[in-house]
Amino acid sequence: MKIYDSSMAPNPRRVRMFLAEKGIEVPYEPVDIGKADNRKPPFLAKNPLGGLPVLELDDGTCIAESVAICRYFEELQPEPPLFGTDAQDRARVEMWNRRMEFEIFQTIAQTFRMTHDFFKGRIPQVPEFGAVCRETAKKRLAWLDEELAGRAFIAGDRYSIADITALTGIDFGRITDIRIAPDQKNLTRWHEAVSARPSAKA
Fold it and tell me: What local confidence, expressed as pLDDT, does residue 34 receive?
């Protein structure tokens, strides 16, 4: 078993953080996305969409998509529970992880994809759409600040994969200068708390 990884990208960090919270050690094999090694035939044979990370099992099965990989390890090692503890809790965590995925992570990632030099010549870029994504991301950070007024973590009183998704997205925003505003005290408190966890350095 091994995980194809990139230290440059936010999605692989999600899996590294998840495994760190679980105390699970898996060998990592770096893939150089700067040289587009993830777009070459040997890697595309493992994931035709070229995305990272990819978990390769001992029988050769390849599982792509960061949340799918995390769910695999949650099934293998349920403790600590990062996807919830019962039907209601799992539904709440799923709801908030999806919100973090679409409203925070994706808007910040699309800003990067549509405006940053890294993707020039790699994909069609639409800077105007990137600008819309930037403003949307800022509005969503303000929304999340209000949501966090009454609880410690994204989905409630327990750390979950929703916190991992939010942290990786928000931290990735620094590259395009999307940041937590000084007056967003609840979001700042949360960010400081989750960034202090050892898993945040994974």
Answer: 92
